[in-house]
Amino acid sequence: MHTTTNTAPALAPHPTGHSATPGRFRKSMSMTALVLFGLAYMVPLAVFTTYGLVTQMTKGHLPTAYMLTLAAMLLTAYSYGRMVQAHPYSGSVYTYTRKAFGSHFGFIAGWTLLLDYIFLPLLSYLLIGIYMSEYFPAVHAWVWVAGAIALVTFLNLIGIESITRVNWILVVVQLLFIVVFVALSVRNLTTQAAPVSLLAPFHHDGFSVPLIMTGAAVLCLSFLGFDAVSTMAEETTNPTSRIPMAILAVSVIGGLLFLLVSYFAQLVFPEWASFADPDSASVDVMRRVGGEFLVTAFTATYVAGCFASAMVSQASVSRVLFAMGRDGALPKVFGQLVTPKRVPAAAIMLVSLLSLVALFITLDTVANMISFGALFAFSAVNLAVVKHYLVDSRLRGTRNCLLYGAVPALGFLSTIWLWTSLSSLSFTIGLCWMGVGFVCLLGLTRAFRVKLPELQMAE
Prior knowledge:
mainly alpha; about 70% helix; globular
């Protein structure tokens, strides 16, 4: 790879001699836009996505589970930043592992990454249907799901700039709601006659490390925002500097917000075993804190947050599909940019069609699928840092061994630990998905007799 400073990625001719120039993205993402993109993807109110599920899973120790997840995610976020500096292209895990370990492993890693990328917008649509049908029981959930898919697809097709403008509004609204929620929670706690233990959300009766680890593994889906930021590398000026900074900012801001909200939710509603419905347990918390008015405000704000997450997650997965199509690992139609806004329209439409699965799948199943793909991808990126810097680039010395060996190794061990804590359902679905990917790889390579096509890129 030939490198010059601050120039757009160029596409060199394919080794066969044919032109391989599917196009370039527009450089429209600023530092602020990247952070907003990541926070919108994570959804500041994402605590309530799996709130009831993980609270019951950990027996009321949700904040403790978030602390463990945040520690592991910060280590992995660091590794993402190092790989963006080495390979500032679309494709995220797919690109990093392909460059580090070869096309075959890169394909499997990219395929597994698709498991959480494809189903994250589906999760957002599913939640929109759950909460809107809860508030408007006369309207079937599928109406809300189908309408959200149509609107999100339209916004993605008209360009990433439209998503950035909408993100400003939706992220700010969620942050304002968090301020109101915390203030009302404090008022609720100060008016209680019984004494409140401020440490109870972190440790009380029923504390179990294995259960908390299982919950922490599921919570990884809340941190996919920093991974999504890495897919915008080809649409960002000076990506080797801005992308790592944005990844770290999104991870820290999002993680602290999750801890804050989960802590106060656990304080005001410690009866974790009494949720009427774990999927919508947050409604019970809101009713306790602020009555029906807060339930209404929460439903509106949370659905808006899910809508923002659906927009950016569909944009993000379409970039991964674009990178795989551009390389020839998927049909070439996915690697083409169309319209004056330079968007991967075929990839966007495919994600929209797959999102229709939200009409009949359960929240628990989606959460397990996403967590399996996310943790596999995070583990692969941590290993890729060691391979690229210490093995391929042959960096030596104590400082390099610490930065490119010890830190990513800790990230790898932490994500593997979380990965092995997932439920059997996660492994059943995830391994089946990987098996399908392996069959596709066999077909593309004719049982490894031919190489996967590779796009040569120079920055």
